[in-house]
Structure formats: structure tokens, C-alpha cells
Amino acid sequence: MGLLKDRGVYALLSPFLIVMGAFFIMPLALVVVYSFLKAGPYGGILWELSHDAYVQILFEKDFDGNVAFNPAYVEVLLRSVKLAGICTLFCVLLGFPTAYYMATCHPSKRNAWILLVTIPFWTNLLIRTYAWMLVLRTDGLLNHFLLLTGIIKEPLLLLYNDFAVGLGLLYSYLPFMILPIYASLERMDWQMTEAAADLYANRWQTLVRITIPLAMPGIVAGCVLVFIPAIGSFLASDLLGGGKQMMLGNLVQMQFGFSRNWPFGSAVSVILMAIVMLGMMWMARNSRGARL
Amino acid sequence: MSSTQRTAPGFGGIAWGALAFLYTPIVILIVFSFNSSKLITVWEGFSADWYRIALENDDLRRAAVNSLIVGLGAMVFSTLIALSTAIAMHRRKAFRGKQLINSLIMLPLMVPEVVIAIASSSFFTAISLSLGIANVLIAHVVFCIPFAYLPMRARLETIPVRALEAAADLYADPWRAFYYVTVPLLMPGIFSGALLAFITSLDDFIITQMVAPPGAMTLPVYIYSMVRRGITPEINAISAILLTLSMIFVIISYLINQKKVA
Fold first, then answer.
1. Which of A249, A286, B158, B257 is deepest in the core (most CB within 10 A)?
2. Are A134 and B29 a contacting pair at CB < 8 A?
3. What mean pLDDT comes out for the span B4-8?
4. Backbone φ, ψ for residue B178 (5° rounding)
5. Which domain holds residue B154?
6. How far apart are CA A56 and CA A67, in angstroms?
7. In a 10 Å sphere around its CB, with 0-12 CB exposed, 13-18 middle and 19+ buried, how is residue A282 labelled?
8. What is the pLDDT of residue A87?
């Protein structure tokens, strides 16, 4: 379009830049600033520079001012990384075959599959997570089913543990894995697999040495798209973990809720954002050519 | 031969299993919203009572109205902002900052929701902005922009240059070409973006919960508070309504977008 002069472009972009600048960039910058301030005695902040908030992640001060290593928050960090990692792994294990099937099924069915995989993404995550509570409760449907079929004698404790949180995460973010892998496979040159067959590669060899490497940009993109929201997720651990299995997202929320330690919550947020940045940089380097 | 090489045994089963995994909880929720029993997970018989009870709940109705106000407001503003951004970004010639803006648009999708939530809420506190439900609206506009933007951008990419050239050949000046060619072809993108922005706003929980002043509850925030107090079939009924609404909107958005550019 030869229609737009430079000035016109910036005029059109100005509403976006103003809104994003004022209500997205500024708040995030404020969080970074808060993370270097002191906590007020009754919540809020004191305008005094300090790195207390970051120190608090690793150490705690007792009443005499002695500093000791405190593993509690490191454990939250590690649990978040562990759960998000396991969730990502299972998303690949489940997502790759699904995407593969979608990409190789009849073209007329592909759009229906895409729609079906996309719909859960657009429906309320809170409600879908809540639905798992109905399934996993001690008097829930899964236990009913298992008791009825005689597989178990006593109801299993399925809710309020790491298993439930992991399952909730897998459920929440599986579409984020399927879609990018599908996008990679759909664009793939399938003649490569035929060439492999001509050279006497069996199906397994073709899959491992041709298809998976060619789908790698999509797999990498999917891993980042799953890992990032999973590590900062709030609902799965809040509802299915019963608040006991805290993740970084819950820790942040708590500091702005009843714990009222804004600098500490901000510091954890900054760490969370740093993890996100690292993930995106990793993706940018490893998934050239992958587009959603 | 090629087809045998492509099909991988067992992958079909996994794919159908994944689909079952994605939909089972949704189906269970909807089925049990029609359960006549007060017990959540024991089926006693069909009844629409929980829907009646849910619809007679005044708090719930207020929350629904709030959700609608915020959702429609966020939809209108984010769609307008995304539209002007998409048109600017569609210009072929590079301009300063184009790449930066490209990443800026995606940023709300990448920053964890909890972080956006606490950032917005402490920012509103810091600048003493307390406009009640309008605070929620402002926060929603920001994270709805990328969802409104993406379908429009994708749509603009598909408009063939020759359509605009044809318009120019017929003596349309650039503005007319834009108005008579680009806009009609872009329309499905605008509609589908607007619908997606609306659903995104309607479904948001964590940001709303942190930003909303007391009394300005939206449906998801209200549902969360109900879940916290204990699970009742009434929650199933409200949830089923909300789920169905979202699904209808996604499908409409999808169908609109399916219309091919001539």
C-alpha cells in the first residue's frame, strides 16, 4: 500500500503505543522498581533502595538479625520448574503423535481437528480446572468408576497433590504443544520420508531421523509455549493442589494478597519474567522458521 | 507406498485419546449440571433446577452484567486499537520500530498472567486510579489486543496485491481502494478478532480478581469464590452456561474466518 506515509503509520500506531506504554510497560517497570524497595510494616512499600527482597528468596533473618539459608522459596522454585518440566515432557509425548496424526489424516478432516484442539484453549480455564476437581475428588467420578469396576478397594487420594497439579497443567497447556508441532508437520516436505523409505529406512528410522528433526522447530516452540505459562500458572496449583503445593504464581499472588510483602512478590515476579525471557531467547535461537 | 510410510501405528489412538482427555471434564461438567441430586458426583436423575437456582441468584446476575460490560468494552476498544495497529503494520515498506512493535504486541501473551495481574493492580494503586469496574476494563483491553490483532493481521496477509492494483486501474485513489477493497476483505478478520477478544475478556480470572475493587465481581471471580466455599451443582450450571457461550463464539469466529478471500 502506497497509501501510508511514515507520519500516517505512527499516527495509526499511537493508540496502541499509548495504551501499551501506560498500562502494560509502566506497570511492569513498576514491579521491577518495587522489587528493589523495602516492604512497609503494614503492607505497601517504603521508598528506600534495598535488595532485601532478593535476599529473602534465599535467606531469612531471625529476630536477632542472624541470617540463615531458607530453602522454602527455593523449593517452590524447584517444584515449579519440576512440574512445568514434567508437564512439558508429557505434552510432547502426547502432542507429537496427535499432531502427526492430524497432519497425516485426510486434508478434509484437518480443519475439524484444529478446531477441536483449539476450542478448549478458548474456554474458561478456571471452569475446566474446576471440572477436574469433580473427577479427582475422593468421592469423585474416577474413584467411583474404579471402585465400581473393582480395580481398587479403597478410594484413592487423587486431589491436592503434585499428581493433580501436574495433570491440571498438562490439561491446560496440551493444545499449545499440538498446534505448533502440527504447523511444522503440515508444512513439511513429506517426499523426504518417501526418499528415506526408498533407501530402506523402516518407519521407526524415518520417524526418528527424518520427521522428528524436521518437526523440531515446532517442538521447540511448543515446549516454550507450554513451559512458560505452566511455570507461572496459578489455577492448577491453587485448585488442584489445594494451596499446599505452591508454585511461583501462587507465591506471587500471596505476596500481593494476605502476606502483603510487595517487594518480595515483585522480586519473584522479576525472576519469573527472567525465566520467560530466557525461554523466548532459547526458542528464537532454536526454532527458526517455526510459525504459529 | 507413501501412505504406509506416513501412517504411524498407534498415533491415531493417541490422538483420539488426547481429544477425549481434552473434552471429558467439559462433558462431565455439563452432564452433571443437569443432575437432580445435591451430591456432585452421584447421578440421580435429569433436572434443570440448578439452572433455575443459578438464574435466580442476584449476586450472580450482577456478576454476569459486570462480565458483559467489561467484555463488550474490552472488545470494542481492543478491536479498534488492534485494527489501526494491523493496518499500520501491514504497510510493506519497513519503518523504524516495526520489529519492536511486532514483539511488543505479543508480549502480553508471554508474560505470566499472575505478573500482569499484580503489576496492573499495584500500578492502579500507585497512581490512585480507582474507577471501579473501569479499572478492570483498562486491564482487559491491554491483554485482549493481541487476540484481536492476530486474525486481522492474518487476514490482511491474504489480501492479494492484484486486488488493490485492479482498483487502481479502475481509477480508485488509495483511500477509495482501502475503503472499497481492503475493508470488506478484512471484515471477517475484524469480526473474528473482536469475538476472540470478547471471549478472552469473559474468561479471564486472575487479572480481574487482583484488579477488581470489592463489589465489582465478574462471573469467573464469582465462580471462584463459590468453588472456594464448597462445590455445589449450581456452580456446574453457571459453568456450563459460560462454557457453552465461549464454544459458540469460537465456532462462529472460526466459521467467519473460513470464508476465503475471492
1. A249
2. yes
3. 63
4. -65, -45
5. 57-258
6. 10
7. middle
8. 96
The ipTM, to two decimals, is: 0.86
Distance (Å, whole) CA B258 – CA B88 = 24
Q: What is the pLDDT of residues A206-238, one digit of tens each?
A: 888 888 888 898 899 899 889 988 998 899 888
Using CA atoms, how far apart are residues B118 and B211, in angstroms rounded to an integer?
8
Backbone angles phi, psi at B48, to 5 degrees: -105, 15
pLDDT at position B41, please? Answer: 66
For residue B141, give the C-alpha cell: 483491553
Q: How many domains does chain B have?
A: 1
**Chain B residues whose beta carbon lies within 8 Å of the beta carbon of residue A253:** 114, 117-118, 206, 210
Ramachandran region of residue B57, left (φ > 0), alpha (ψ -120 to 50) or beta?
A: beta
Tell me which H or E stretch contains A291. Answer: none
Q: A26-30, A80-84, B1-5, B67-71 — which is least confidently predicted? A: B1-5
Question: Which amino acid is it at B96?
Answer: R
Give the best residue of A5, A6, A10, A13 to mutate against chain B (max B CB count within 10 A): A13
> Is A121's pLDDT higher than 60?
yes
Residues 6+ apart with CB under 8 A from A287: A216, A217, A218, A220, A221, A224
Distance CA(B235)–CA(B106), nearest Å, equals 33
Please count the residues of chain B.
Answer: 262
Does A31 touch chain B if contact means CB atoms closer than 8 Å? yes
CB-count burial class (<10 Å; 0-12, 13-18, 19+) for A13: buried
Q: Distance from CA of residue A287 to its chain's centroid?
A: 18
Query: Beta strands A59-61 and A67-69: pairing type?
Result: antiparallel
Which residues in chain A touch residue B208, judged by CB atoms under 8 angstroms apart? Answer: none
Sign of CA pseudo-dihedral A156, A162, A168, A170: negative
Cell of B233: 451443582
Looking at residue A230, its amino acid is A
Domain-embedded: residue B51: no
Q: Write down the residue that cell numbers 493492580 correspond to.
A: B121
CATH architecture type of domain A61-286: Orthogonal Bundle (1.10)
Q: What is the mean pLDDT of chain B?
A: 86
For testing contact with chain B, the best of A6, A37, A126, A172 (most B CBs within 10 A): A126
| A85 neighbors A256 (Cβ within 8 angstroms) | no
Count other Cβ atoms within 10 Å, centred on residue B208.
Answer: 27
Establish if B186 belongs to a structural domain.
Answer: yes
| Contact state of A269 with B114 under an 8 Å Cβ cutoff | yes
**CATH number (domain holding residue B139):** 1.10.3720.10
pLDDT surpassing 60 at residue B261: no
B4 belongs to a structural domain: no
Residue B147 lies in a domain: yes
Of A27, A247, A44, A128, the closest CA to residue B211 belongs to A27
The pLDDT of residue A82 is: 93
Question: What is the Cα–Cα distance from B76 to B191, expressed in whole angstroms?
Answer: 11
